[in-house]
């Protein structure tokens, strides 16, 4: 458990190199669930680049100290304390042997060495290694590792660790051993071991340089039939990294292991990636199209870390985005390539839209709250709280801007120089920026502000067209408007913002672009470099008054302010050649309408939907020239959470009323079109998880969800009941069940109940599917007679619910608190009382998971007064009772 003492604030400015270095580590494990003995032999020397220290201070938590030796002799000048060991009066260079023990069975934090379903697993990022043995547990201490695992052969027939297997054999008393060697220097957070009853899907491949590699996906025996997609995703990742960046797999083997008890999605331990089962296991009956896509992306992400995170790692945890932002960008590019190849811009745009939706809904909200921080934070109390959307998703956008500025070839040159300079080192975000700058002959000093300033920038755009001179002037002004105090404190100056723009003529065609001073036009999209608080760019030879297409492909993580009329937005939705901005125009149009209706709903005024929105959505729905996947995204309304955040005072009930009104209106006005779309996008035959087939299923099931909103949803109930019964894949089955639950207030009540019961019985032995069962119920709308909170509380008593399993807690508790805003923010405060109970319950078991749940109320000041008061009371309750620094940091920042 995290300590309960007054938390220490760790500051980036206080960084100092470690006083000692550890060149080599030899670990020996005698594995037993309740008492695992660990002997670590460390080759230690003083760091010539650091201030001398008389004693060696090693980190350690919840460990039993057994003994120490220096250079083979027993050493008594060792003081054990709550946070580690102090080894006094050490020589300049020596071999230190430490023996200790830990209790994996009792480790519910899932950090360090723990037991899940009788098997042993580790999670060491960020500071879990200190729960295994005493160490300089910081990312800038890089060592080679040799690891020997010993265990009962019946209980643990499989023994895995990082690197290459160099020796294995039997021992007396039914035990056996395996010895692993990782020849690459790595920090302790990349250490891993796995031991237990597992089976593997294996493949052998040959890399581009002709070397043979063994790939393995390890799972529990009953899950072996769900590993093919993960293996294929791994092979695709290896091939893509070879083609795109010239990076090869460097070890003899690469292993993925799936575990159901895991705090994160996956972990990139060198050569032995440990994954949450959610991002490994898939077959058509148990996994949706979204699951298949997420597995491909996460497998890619963790594999890509082999170079961007492992071979070159972080100097300190403030540089976390050095590896995470860069690797998220790499996995986004990989997923875009897998969805349609590098040349299919429409398919790539669909992936881009999905990524930006997440960024806007989650990271922009983070920027506006008390946890706002730069991509490279300046301080923290608990590092686990800084695995954030800002570090990951905004960090990826910062990396993407290098590619926008320099093009794909220039970005590759920067990556090549980065690896040439820093392979095998622990470095900083500045080192990456300098490699990009030097490789492309650019001064990127101003670009550093993207790493050091928090908040979401706003770019205000005004245009002026001079018909006589055929000149169009575009003035861009940048600033932050009113952000959170946490963000405002970091904002020091103008950013370098790559701002992509196009001009569209009255006929809907892109105009050729020539800036003043240029001899000829060049393309129809230009990236303007905004470096001042305000700049004007003038285009010449513009024959007709154009409509600007702004921030094409979302070229920078900013909010664009431009006063488009509804007609102009509809025109962009119909004609913009940039797929992202086409989608963006529709979202702006819908957001404008929804916010206006929410304002009326808040004051109980009558509601009426604007015909312009219906007509615009109808045109998209009927436009067969657009891909089904694009139409699905374009026809989704902005989420209730996103809409509430756009209000001066968030009112979830009013937003829900408005959004449901519009969904019903679109369902009724376009009923015949939805029915046609449903039939036109059926996917008969065997299930295929291809992007094309997934696009058809997505549009078909979106049509079904709209039809379920009708006041008389007989068609939806008929279609959903038939689809549920005939489904040969989880995508269609789950969508049909969701539609029946939506229609349950009308004619679908009995069918929904029967389908829900059937779903559980059918998949009772599939934990990931039962997670979906919990989530569907946690996110249902509820009624005045039975609010969803009652269903959630009842489900917590269900035999299948287990608070200690993070996936199960997320499927029910997190789904309700984060994905059902209208019910969670109930006027009676019942949702907040439930939230407080669960944060405190999780805090006693797993502080990392508890802290993530605690963040649900961090924007409490943005809500209406009554909700605000109730949220504050819940926050104060948690602040008074929370034990971990993980949770206390969150709630104390929220209340400050």
Automatic annotation (TrEMBL):
The keyword Transport is assigned to this record: no
Gene Ontology terms describing biological process: proteolysis
CDD domains from the xrefs? M1_APN
Record's keyword terms, sorted:
Aminopeptidase, Hydrolase, Metal-binding, Metalloprotease, Protease, Zinc
Q: Could you identify this protein by its name?
A: Aminopeptidase N
Q: What class of enzyme is it?
A: hydrolase
Q: Name one GO molecular function term.
A: metallopeptidase activity
| Assigned protein family | Belongs to the peptidase M1 family.
What domain of life? Bacteria
Reaction(s) the record says it catalyses: Release of an N-terminal amino acid, Xaa-|-Yaa- from a peptide, amide or arylamide. Xaa is preferably Ala, but may be most amino acids including Pro (slow action). When a terminal hydrophobic residue is followed by a prolyl residue, the two may be released as an intact Xaa-Pro dipeptide
Entry EC no(s) = 3.4.11.2
């Amino acid at each position: 458990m995290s300590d309960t003492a007054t938390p220490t604030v760790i500051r980036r400015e206080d960084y100092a190199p470690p006083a000692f270095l550890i060149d080599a580590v030899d670990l020996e494990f005698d594995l037993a669930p309740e008492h695992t003995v660990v002997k670590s032999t460390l080759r230690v020397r003083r760091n010539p680049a650091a201030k001398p220290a008389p004693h060696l201070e090693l980190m350690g938590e919840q460990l039993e100290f057994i003994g120490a030796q220096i250079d083979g002799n027993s050493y008594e000048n060792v003081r054990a304390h709550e946070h580690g060991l102090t080894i006094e009066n050490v020589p300049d260079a020596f071999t230190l042997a430490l023996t200790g023990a830990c209790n994996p069975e009792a480790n519910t934090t899932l950090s360090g060495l723990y037991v899940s379903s009788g098997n042993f697993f580790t999670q060491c990022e960020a500071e879990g290694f200190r729960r295994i043995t005493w160490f300089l547990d910081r990312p800038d201490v890089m060592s080679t590792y040799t690891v020997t695992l010993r265990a009962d052969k019946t209980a643990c027939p499989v023994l895995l660790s990082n690197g290459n297997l160099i020796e294995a054999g039997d021992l007396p008393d039914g035990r056996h051993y395996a010895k692993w060697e990782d020849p690459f220097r790595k920090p302790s957070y990349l250490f891993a071991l796995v031991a237990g009853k597992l089976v593997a899907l294996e493949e052998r491949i040959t890399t581009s340089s002709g070397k043979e590699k063994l790939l393995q996906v390890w799972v529990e025996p009953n899950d072996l039939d769900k590993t093919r997609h993960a293996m294929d995703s791994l092979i695709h990742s290896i091939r893509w990294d070879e083609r795109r960046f010239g990076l090869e797999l460097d070890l003899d083997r690469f292993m993925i292991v799936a575990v159901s008890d895991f705090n994160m999605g996956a972990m990139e331990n060198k050569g032995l990636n440990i994954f949450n089962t959610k991002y490994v296991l898939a077959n058509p009956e148990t996994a949706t199209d979204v699951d298949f896509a997420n597995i491909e992306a996460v497998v890619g992400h963790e594999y890509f870390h082999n170079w961007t995170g492992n071979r070159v790692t972080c100097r300190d945890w403030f540089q976390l985005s050095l590896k995470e932002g860069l690797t998220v960008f790499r996995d986004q590019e990989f997923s875009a390539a897998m969805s349609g190849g590098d040349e299919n811009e429409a398919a790539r745009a669909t992936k881009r839209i999905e990524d930006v939706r997440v960024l806007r809904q989650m990271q922009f909200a983070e920027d506006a709250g008390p946890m706002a921080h730069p991509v490279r934070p300046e301080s923290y109390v608990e590092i686990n709280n800084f695995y954030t959307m800002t570090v990951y998703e905004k960090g990826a956008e910062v990396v993407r801007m290098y590619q926008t500025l320099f093009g794909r070839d220039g970005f590759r040159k920067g990556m090549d120089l980065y690896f040439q300079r820093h392979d095998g080192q622990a470095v900083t975000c500045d080192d990456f920026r300098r490699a990009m700058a030097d490789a492309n002959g650019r001064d990127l000093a101003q670009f550093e502000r993207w790493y050091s300033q928090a908040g979401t920038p706003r770019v205000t755009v005004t245009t002026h067209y001079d018909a006589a001179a055929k000149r169009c002037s575009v003035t861009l002004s940048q600033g932050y408007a009113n952000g959170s105090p946490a963000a405002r404190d970091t904002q020091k100056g103008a950013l370098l913002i790559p701002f992509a723009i196009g001009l569209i003529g009255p006929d809907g065609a892109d105009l050729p672009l020539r800036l003043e001073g240029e001899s000829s036009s060049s393309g129809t999209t230009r990236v303007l470099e905004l470096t001042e608080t305000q700049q004007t760019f003038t285009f010449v030879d513009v024959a007709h008054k154009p409509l600007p297409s702004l921030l094409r492909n979302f070229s920078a993580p900013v909010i664009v302010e431009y006063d488009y009329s509804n007609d102009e937005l509809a025109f962009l939705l119909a004609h913009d050649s940039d797929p992202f901005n086409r989608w963006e125009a529709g979202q702006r149009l819908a957001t404008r309408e929804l916010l206006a209706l929410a304002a009326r709903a808040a004051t109980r005024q009558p509601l009426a939907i604007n015909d312009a929105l219906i007509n615009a959505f109808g045109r998209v729905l009927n436009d067969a020239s657009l891909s089904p996947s694009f139409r699905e995204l374009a026809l989704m309304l902005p989420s209730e959470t996103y809409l509430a955040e756009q209000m001066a005072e968030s009112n979830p009930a009013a937003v829900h009323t408005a959004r449901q009104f519009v969904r019903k209106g679109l369902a009724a006005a376009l009923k015949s079109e939805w029915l046609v779309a449903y039939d036109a996008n059926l996917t008969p035959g065997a299930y295929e998880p291809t992007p094309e087939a997934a696009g058809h299923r997505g549009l078909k099931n979106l049509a079904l969800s709209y039809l379920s909103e009708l006041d008389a949803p007989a068609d939806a109930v008929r279609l959903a009941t038939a689809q549920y019964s005939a489904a040969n894949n989880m995508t269609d089955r789950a969508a049909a069940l969701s539609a029946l639950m939506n229609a349950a207030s009308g004619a679908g009540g009995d069918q929904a109940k029967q389908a829900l019961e059937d779903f559980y019985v059918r998949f009772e032995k599939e934990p990931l599917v039962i997670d979906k069962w919990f989530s569907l119920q946690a996110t249902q709308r509820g009624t005045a007679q039975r609010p969803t909170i009652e269903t959630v509380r009842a489900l917590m008593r269900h035999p299948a619910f287990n608070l200690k399993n993070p996936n199960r807690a997320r499927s029910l508790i997190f789904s309700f608190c984060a994905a059902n805003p209208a019910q969670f923010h109930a006027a009676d405060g019942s949702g907040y009382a439930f939230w407080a109970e669960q944060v405190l319950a999780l805090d006693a078991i797993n502080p990392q998971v508890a802290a993530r749940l605690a963040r649900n109320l961090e924007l409490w000041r943005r809500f209406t007064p009554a909700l605000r008061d109730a949220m504050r009371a819940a926050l104060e309750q948690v602040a008074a009772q929370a034990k971990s620094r993980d949770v206390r940091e969150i709630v104390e920042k929220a209340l400050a």
